[in-house]
Amino acid sequence: AVVSTQSTGRAISLAPEMASLYNDRGQLHRLMGDTVKALEDVERAIQLSNGQGKTAVQAYTQRAMLHMRNGDEENARVDFERASYLGGKFAACQAAKLNPYAKLCNQMLSQAMEQLQ
Question: What is this structure's pTM?
Fold first, then answer.
């Protein structure tokens, strides 16, 4: 994995305005547990992509996962919703799970089902 981050770093030095490279390196950092570097790269990817397109979907989703890892469901939900708005299907599912109204509705439905049994 270290070799991969070094390779991605070299690619970034050749194409420093290519958002997807920052997103890719951010994902590697996240998978290796370095959330600080992951967040830096993912935020740079969002900035370079102007929050639009496939790279933005991936970067918002990754940032949401970093928020989840840190126990910040509210900011995770916001980023999942941003990615969902841009077409991210995984993000849409995750945003729905974190929606406070959906949670409440599911809880009420579960209670009603228990009472019927």
Answer: 0.82
Which residues, other chains included, contact 64 with Cβ-Cβ below 8 Å and sequence gap of 6+?
75, 76, 77, 78, 79, 80, 83, 91, 94
Rounded to whole angstroms, how far apart are CA atoms 36 and 14? 23
What 3-state class would DSSP assign to 72? coil
Compute the Cα dihedral for 102, 104, 107, 109 and give only its sign.
negative
| Structural contact between residues 66 and 42, judged by C-beta atoms closer than 8 angstroms | yes
Q: Which amino acid is at 26?
A: G
Cα 115 from Cα 2, distance rounded (Å): 54
Residues 65-94 have pLDDT tens digits of: 999 999 999 999 999 999 999 999 999 999
